[in-house]
Write a structure and sequence with these properties.
Elements: E1 10-18, E2 29-38, E3 41-47, E4 60-63, E5 68-71, E6 73-75, H1 87-94, H2 99-104, H3 109-118, H4 121-137, E7 140-146, H5 153-169, E8 173-181, H6 192-209, E9 215-220, H7 227-239, E10 244-248, H8 256-262, E11 267-270, H9 276-285, E12 288-291, H10 293-298, H11 307-312, E13 317-319, H12 333-342, H13 348-354, H14 357-362, E14 380-383, H15 390-393, E15 400-405, E16 408-409
Parallel strand pairs: 1-4, 1-5, 6-7, 7-8, 8-9, 9-10, 10-11, 11-12, 12-13
Antiparallel strand pairs: 1-2, 2-3, 5-14, 14-15, 15-16
Helix pairs in contact: 4-5, 6-7, 8-9, 12-13
The structure holds N-(iminomethyl)-L-glutamic acid and fe (iii) ion.
N-(iminomethyl)-L-glutamic acid is lined by residues 79, 108-109, 112, 219, 247, 250, 295, 322, 324-327.
Length: 411
């Protein structure tokens, strides 16, 4: 008789498994479990007592000695490729200036655009590599990287190529999002419609042709783009079969989420000012609510996203770092787990779902990653903890014991 382990490359035993296979309603945990991997995929998991006989000579066995394993973490909203920094604006805000005032007086995103345009591809790569490495060392195996600090075709393409290079050199899946409609570049000052025309008629076709965008995003906001402009960008993305997502309801309620729902958006992100109608639209469309506690914290926002209503309407909630130089210069998803609980009162189960299964869904990669079930990629984080809530409870001592990307140990 051939033992099943003839086809197993790696087998974890003595592990507790937070499979996250029930949409975040529980850890869907298997205590005292085992998990087998072949060809980079999960091929068996269950209670150790049910483990079929296996050939110890064929398989590399990893004894977890009671540690927990979870899906590799997924940061579904980042802007880690950029030039310069904005510490000067941080000081201005501490003296009383608001994020919007700084943007309106020519600072904010536009000042990062200047630094990003001036940077070479190698310089952008070197600084982004450090940020990605920090996230990876905390257990991240997939993330999203947005463009949006170039705001002309060459500079946007430069950013997206850096994102490609990062994925080639670190064992992390990178989903690229084109965010040409992030802010108005100085050369289009007072003519936002003309800039949106450029985004729709030249930039989106060009990035689509070069296969540089897995999604298209818009900053729909008073200091960003209007509903009509957002819709024009969505239509251009749709014409190229690229899914959309939106930065919406961060500083005011423009209804960007409801519009995005009509375009079957993957997610709407920020959402502090989301209305009841916006929540209902999310429920109907099935899009993910991506909450960004780092930006909430760093901008010292006081209005909370409507979390209870999202829960009541079974809207899936993801949590991300929003790592960027202006509103969230924070390259730590472990800190976001903590903040999701302390600032937004998510349960540790909801927070962990927010950086695994629901984050995968916000990126449209939930058929491959985000849950530990048979058939999924073996992207697995092993943690030196006694219970999953510890991932949210303590911050500053990295509990990551090992990390596997498609079945290969990378940390
Ligand atoms: O997600 N809201 C717009 N974009 C970023 C901030 C970008 C910046 O300030 O550089 C965000 O918060
Ligand atoms: Fe953002």
């Amino acid at each position: 008789m051939t033992l099943p382990s003839a086809n197993w490359q790696l087998l974890f035993i003595n592990v507790n498994i937070a499979t996250m296979s029930q949409g975040g309603t529980s850890y869907a945990a298997i205590e005292d479990g085992a998990l087998a991997i072949n060809d980079g995929k999960i091929v068996w998991l269950g209670n150790k007592a049910q483990l079929p006989d296996y050939d110890t000579e064929q398989v590399t066995v990893v004894d977890g000695m009671g540690k927990w394993i979870t899906p590799g973490l997924i940061d579904c909203h980042t802007h880690i490729v950029y030039g310069g920094h904005r510490a000067n604006e941080f000081e201005l805000r501490l003296q009383g200036a608001s994020y919007e005032e700084i943007a309106q007086s020519g600072g904010g995103i536009v000042s990062t655009v200047k630094a990003t345009r001036a940077a070479t591809e190698d310089e952008l790569y070197a600084s982004a590599y450090k940020r990605l490495n920090a996230l990876h060392n905390e257990g991240v195996t997939s993330l999203e990287i947005k463009s949006g600090y170039g705001l002309d075709l060459d500079s946007e393409v430069k950013m997206l190529k850096v994102a490609n290079r990062l994925s080639e050199n670190l064992p992390v899946t990178v989903q690229k999002t084109f965010l040409g409609a992030h802010a108005l570049p100085v050369e289009y000052k007072d003519d936002a419609d003309a800039y949106i025309k450029l985004v729709c008629e030249q930039m989106i076709p060009a990035v689509a042709k070069q296969n540089l965008a897995d999604a298209v995003d818009v900053f729909c906001e008073g200091i960003g783009f209007s509903l009509a402009q957002t819709e024009a960008v969505f239509n251009a993305a749709k014409a190229h079969n690229i899914p959309v997502k939106v930065h919406a309801e961060q500083l005011s309620d423009l209804g960007g989420t409801e519009l995005a729902a009509k375009y079957n958006a993957l997610s709407s992100d920020h959402l502090e000012f989301l209305s009841d109608a916006g929540v209902k639209a999310m429920q109907t469309s099935g899009m993910v609510a991506v909450l960004l506690p780092g930006a909430f914290y760093f901008l010292r926002e006081t209005k909370l996203p409507p979390i209870e209503m999202l829960r009541e309407n079974n809207v899936r909630i993801a949590i991300a770092s929003d790592a960027n130089p202006g509103s969230s210069p924070i390259n730590s998803l472990q800190l976001m787990l903590n903040m999701a609980c302390t600032l937004f009162r998510l349960t540790p189960t909801e927070a962990l779902a927010g950086v695994t299964c629901n984050a995968a869904r916000a990126l449209g990669i939930d058929d491959k990653v985000g849950e530990l079930v048979v058939g999924m990629d073996a992207d697995i984080a092993m943690w030196d903890i006694e219970q999953p809530a510890e991932l949210c409870y303590q911050f500053g001592v990295n509990p990551l014991a090992a990390l596997y990307k498609q079945g290969k140990q990378v940390i």
